[in-house]
Write a structure and sequence with these properties.
The chain is mainly α. It folds into two domains: 96 residues, Orthogonal Bundle (Cytochrome p450-Terp, domain 2), CATH 1.10.230; 30 residues, no CATH class. Helices cover 54% and strands 0% of the residues. Helix 2 crosses helix 4 and helix 3 packs parallel to helix 5.
Length: 148
């Protein structure tokens, strides 16, 4: 979303257009948290440290302004940044390609998913049926810009 916005001057018009079209603001809102996602707070602090150490980034400055304007526009709805908003900025600062962000987020959650599964097995409660992957194995990765 930040790359779509492009500049600090474009933040307000971009967010207003999204809200007028009743489109979600990526990186904002959470089904459980009605306050700022505590994970987002930690990642925001990490992003601040990264950019203090590595030099301020236009992307980080854009994120700060986007959060400020979004909170102003969404104040009645109590919608706040979630973990995805600042995780992307941190990943970008670390040089991680944008098209791998979702995979990294899923890998970070895998231990928790497995822990939930183990708890469900021990408590003998219903859990989701086994899912067997039927797709191709050992596929090579081709970056998006090289795909047809």
């Amino acid at each position: 979303m930040l790359r779509e916005i492009g500049t600090i001057q474009g933040v307000r018009s971009y967010l207003e257009a999204k809200l007028k079209a009743k489109q979600p603001l990526m990186g904002f809102g959470h089904r459980v948290y009605k306050v700022k996602d505590p994970r987002a707070v930690i990642l925001q602090q990490l992003a601040q440290k990264l950019f203090t150490h590595c030099g301020k980034s236009p992307l980080y400055a854009l994120a700060e302004e986007t959060e400020r304007v979004a909170l102003e526009l969404l104040s009645q709805k109590r919608v706040y940044p979630n973990v995805d908003f600042y995780s992307g900025i941190v990943y970008d600062a670390m040089g991680i390609p944008t098209d791998t962000f979702t995979s990294i987020f899923a890998m970070a959650r895998a231990a928790g998913w497995l822990a939930h599964w183990l708890e469900q097995m021990k408590e003998n409660k219903l859990y989701r049926p086994d899912q067997i992957y039927e797709g191709e194995h050992n596929r090579s990765y081709l970056p998006l810009d090289q795909r047809q």
